[in-house]
Amino acid sequence: MEEERETKTQQRPKGGLVTMPFIFANEACEKLAVVGFQTNMITYLTQQLHMPLTKAANTLTNFGGTASLTPLLGAFVSDAFAGKFWTVTIASLIYQIGMISLTTSAIVPSLRPAQGQEASGGQLAILYISLLLTALGSGGIRPCVAAFGAEQFDESDPKQKNSTWKYFNWYYFVMGVSILLAVTVVVYIQDDIGWGWGLGIPTFVMFLSIVTFVFGYPLYRHVNPAGSPFTRLVQVCVAAYGKRKVPMVSDARLLYENEELDDSIASAGKLIHTKQMRFLDKAAIVTEEDNPKAPNLWRLNTVHRVEELKSVIRMGPIWASGIILITAYAQQSTFSLQQAKTMDRHLTKSFQLPAASMSVFTITSMLTTVVFYDRLFIPMARRLTGLDRGINFLHRMGIGFAISTLATLVAGFVEIKRKHHAMQAHTIPGHKPLSFVWLVPQYGLHGMAEAFMSIGHLEFFYDQAPESMRSTATALFWTSISLGNYLSTFLVTVVHKVTARKDGSNWLPDDDINKGKLEYFYWLITGLQVLNFVYYVLCAKFYTFKPVQLLVKDNGDGQMKKNEEVELVYNQV
Question: All domains of the chain, ordered by start, with CATH?
Answer without folding.
Answer: 14-225 (1.20.1250.20), 229-309 (no CATH), 315-573 (1.20.1250.20)
